[in-house]
Fold:
Amino acid sequence: MSAERTGVSLVRRTMLGLQPSRSGWQIAGMSAVAVVIVGALSTLLISSTGSSPTAALHALYTGSIASQAAWTTTLLYAAPLLIVAAGSCISSRSGAFNIGQEGQVLIGALAVAAVTLKLQLAGWALLVIGICVAALAGGFWAWLSSLMYRISGVNIVVSTLLMTFVAQQLISYAVNTSWFLQEPSVAGIAPLPESKQIATGSQLRSFGSYPNLQLSVGLILALALTVAVAVTMTRTRWGFRLKMVGLNPLTARHAGVRVAALGGLALAISGAFAGIAGAVLLTSPVGNFRLQPGVSSNIGWDGLLVALVARNRPIVAVPFALLFGILRSGGNFLSSTGVPPFLVDVVKGLLVLAFVAPPALADILKRRAATRRASASGRHAPALQGAAA
Amino acid sequence: MDSSVPAIELRGITKSYGSVVACDAVDLAVHQGEIHGLLGENGAGKSTLMKVLLGLVQRDAGTILHHADPVEIDSPQAAVALGLGMVHQHFSLIEPLRVWENVILGDSGRIDRIAACTQVEEVGRRYGLPIDPMARVDQLSAGERQRVELVKCLRRDPSVLILDEPTSVLTQAESIELFSVLRRVVQQENRAVILISHKLAEITAATDHVTVLRKGAVAFHSRTAETTPQELARQMVGRDVSLRAEAAALGVLPVERTSITPAAGIDAGVPAGPAALSFHSLSVQVGGVAVLDELSLDVRAGEIVGLYGVEGNGQSTLGDVLSGLIVPTSGTIELGGVAVDASGPGALQRAGLGIVPEDRHRSGVVLDMSVAENLTCKALDDISARGFLSRRKMYAIARRLTAEFNIIAPSLDAPVRSLSGGNQQRLVVARELSANPTVLVAAQPTHGLDVGAIEDMYLRLRKVASSGVAVLLISTELEEVMALCSRIAVISSGRITGVLSTGEATAERLGMLVGGIAA
Structure:
């Protein structure tokens, strides 16, 4: 019995990073209630725009999971979302809040496009090199923020965010510059701000064929990376140190951890993951196989939200990445039926709140209960303080 | 001077927190035109008394008289209305704001920058406290910040000005300047000043009257001119008599140093042999002020050396240096005769130094990590192979240590946050000792612990020392160092003012050293 329980808790801990607790149930309950409220609000919103909520729900369903082809699209979105989220888990664990994934995704997409379009090699080799370069480029982009922090104390949240806009300008430059990545113009037609399509050989392979389910290599890569992150965070020395740095950098330093270096590395790794996500996105059908200014299509932002909702536990991010993938593919289909597309974003935002608010609320309740206990159980603590001086 | 009626008088003020009596029937009368020194160790009740006076704490008994009229001070506003102003030891300034903004903070009505600046300059001129009202506080030195606090206080025209350890962050020159300002305040404007301090030189040089508090009660009162630093030192620290009684009550009767058994010989007097831990001219400068000033000290294997002093004299900085959190500006740390480069994280720990830090929540444990993780976080090599952790090994070590050190925890997976203070402290000690250190530094190891946990800690430290580990006990508790140590080094303003064997350590000598006067 107890051995079995230990076994279960071990699985929980290693696989999810979850500690079974009373507040866990509390959070689950509150989340369920919040999701119901979001459902009701969404229904209200959709009816207020003159559409039928049931029709909208049906469209969402048809576009995302009703058919095998719909599943294919959903999973194509879920893969880069999951990769971004897994990377975010690492930087958050170290206490650095990277919110520049969108820019790092763009840099990754730029890198893979440049490699696959400029180098002359066999297709698969180009793809592998492209993904590696994308990882390095995304990692470098994020590392610049940690460098700025170390040199002049620039806040990481601010610098990662602002670097996103720099990345957008860089992409815009790349696809508007003929010697760089802009598609050569056909005589008489003004050139478009986009790159050539990458060769078929350099595109990500899929298993299965239309109209059946197609499983992209990108999804397999995403799952493998997620498991790797989960194992690294819970089972390795490096993950242990990362956790210490995130929770108490002073104790970590005392225990011999190079806090600044480790934090910088964690930030770079999260950037590298976003870079890989950009590469996976560009080399799969949902990325149109070409570099365009909007190629990232908010995958970076949404991936960050996935990590936020999963509270930085990589395995928990898997279902949420799928949920966000469903909302994306279903949302695209929904907007083709006449429902304003921004409604999908609103629903997505509400859902994030539904999952993020309960843990925060539980924390507040817990802290308040603790304060009440402390003030009720005796005035001993302030007494020591008062007498100490 | 009108010295017949005190500007403010406290009669029989008593305040207790639970079973701790912080103030026990304290009388204090402060007259206009005088600087009244309030002297006492940490925990003597100085701050509690001032909190009562300022309406921050409600007294249990006693009366407060303001120019012979009984008054109720039930809130800080009431204290301000009576003309009581205080400059706290820890500045209450908002650093990114400018001087004038800090000065008018708390006022009501429209903000008038020009008027505020003029007033700051005017007050500054009147008292010789020149300060640029447009300067940002975070760009000011500690001395300048103190000036801002003083200006803030003086512009409200207080009749009684209270200063709590005002020189703890000041340089010598700044301190001298401060006292000349205070002298002007009392002589020219007939205000009253209460100066809280533990520095004897300051009290004797700057005050007119002095009251010594000890254990919450007035131990001594005199005109400053009629007493001596020696007398004050004895009154401040003097509790030789109670020492043994107290230690016995805790069950840790001091080892009789006159009858040393051969087995206990190692912690007697000054043992021979090389120093296990030594500091050579260790200095740390923070903002131009030497927090540690050329500190040198040796601790030999098997002895417990106490580093005794009043809080805020560099002890916490020394603790941070030994924890690897601060890199010393100059000087060396040697372990077993080998100099250790303290700049790398964990370097001292690898060289065999274990430390129980002063603030365990800050740098001793990770509150949100489990008991097992906290017990093994400094021994990752022992619980991992090729980069991967072995939970089995982690739990084995954790189980052994919790049993050996009697750590009571809901489970090994419970976060350290859920443990009592005593158990958290035992956890830190267990982890540090599990690395088999040659030197153990214990900084305020019994702060905030109950009697049982204190007793446990004392026994543990003795056992550790008798097993041949050099122990440095950083403490502000005289009983503690007297009960445990064979030698006592006294720290004052970041320097060792003297090292005494326990036999030589009399209250008077310790008090003089604590007050920064070589004895």
Notes: The beta strands of chain A are 206-207, 215-216.
